[in-house]
Amino acid sequence: MIQNDDYTIEETLDPRDWDSMRTLGHKMMDDVIDYISTVREKPVWKHMPEAVKKQIRQSIPMEPEPSENIYNEFLENIFPYPSGNIHPRFWGWVIGTGSPMGVLSELLSAAMNSNTGGLDHHSAIHVEKQVIEWFKEIMGFPSTSSGLLTSGCSASNLIGLTTARNTMASYNLRKKGIQPGKSKMTLYASEEIHSSNPKAAELLGLGSDALRTIPVNGAYQIDLEALEAAISRDRRDGFTPFCIIGAAGTTNTGAVDDLNSMADICEKENLWFHVDGAFGAWAVIAPEVKHLVKGIERADSLAFDLHKWMYMPYEVGCILVREEENHRNSFSLTPAYLVHGTGGQGMTGGDLPWFSDYGFQLSRGFKALKVWMSLKEHGIHKYGRLIQQNIDQVNYLVKLIKCTPELELTIPASLNIVCFRYIGSDPENTKLDALNKRIEIELQERGIAVLSVTLLNNKTVLRVANTNHRTKREDFDILVKEILK
Ligand SMILES: Cc1ncc(COP(=O)(O)O)c(C=O)c1O
Predict the structure, then answer these.
(1) Can you give the pTM of this predicted structure?
(2) Structural domains in the chain?
(3) Cα 462 to averaged position of ligand 1 atoms, centre (Å)
């Protein structure tokens, strides 16, 4: 028998004083609402001073600190130095804006702390199932297809391409691995495809060389003749083509491949059709541009994000797979301690697969709540209008560029992306690459706007990718004025 135990020393991470925690929570909420609602008045970005970085470098905290002190440290050293993408003049790379409801829903899902990898008969699973049903319908996928929310499109591409590789292999690749003796599996995408795809080919043990990068045409879309020629060449040389990746919106220029023709080629050649639609897939809900992504509904797997052009807070993306069985057969692995789907009661009784049967994560958070709440708060029509608004704003910027002699449009804008450069009075000036990079940096350092740069035809160009629901047209007037300055 245990004696003299002092149970009063048992510990927990819960506060002793819930009222103080409530007061602190209310203060945080006020600060958050102030922070977001006044973002336009602040610089888009502020360089984090070395002194502040030093403040953050501390030894491991061994003993507790009062919550108020920790929060004050956050207010002083962390909150003022964000990456800036909630600001109306942030247009760098392809980074979404987030929304106030998205913030609140993150609080609620953290409070529930549901693990959505598995277990059934709990609400988070049913919310995720519901949002995936919505996405299937929006993207034109059959109701029998499967889906999974992911950390983003890199994970979605990896899951889609894993399913493609495992389904198209002529043997049990999950069990046997890549077989040196077998003819090498190859896949195809334009040279403009996002880096997460060659990364996936590497992770899948195919090697990035297995991803044949096909030249693009003048509109930066995959050259279909070159694609077909590469497939024939590989077949002749003893390779095993298995997949074509279409781009619904390339990162560099926003170009959308001819998805319908690619789907035709896949049908003819018996290849898997994967579409990387990280942001561009959402053109499906924008009335004036949805024709551009026609054919997306024919994909075998479709990867897209919610944290880019659907303005939801990081992280959340999605993968849809046309044939549910292929998806599940690529990922499901059930040891005795995770047996499920037996039917009936309890959290293992549900008779449908778990979400962990469709991806590489077992433990997963409740990402679906922010998706569910955001979609319900605004409705899909409003998201469609916002996406169209971003495109119209970019076309307005194009007009400004065209009537400003010191600026040159590099290529016509596609979807929400425009690439241009400052040329001053001399387009042949050899210092223009350095000058445009300098402009990008100064706009950031002065807190005016965040753009990024890229290389097109070996020239450094400024690049605006508008996935920002806070942007107004006048923000582009400011941008052009400040570039000239
Ligand atoms: C076309 C495209 N695909 C994939 C990705 C990777 O997505 P994520 O950053 O959500 O992992 C991006 C990111 O910008 C992208 O633009």
Answers:
(1) 0.97
(2) 114-378 (3.40.640.10)
(3) 19
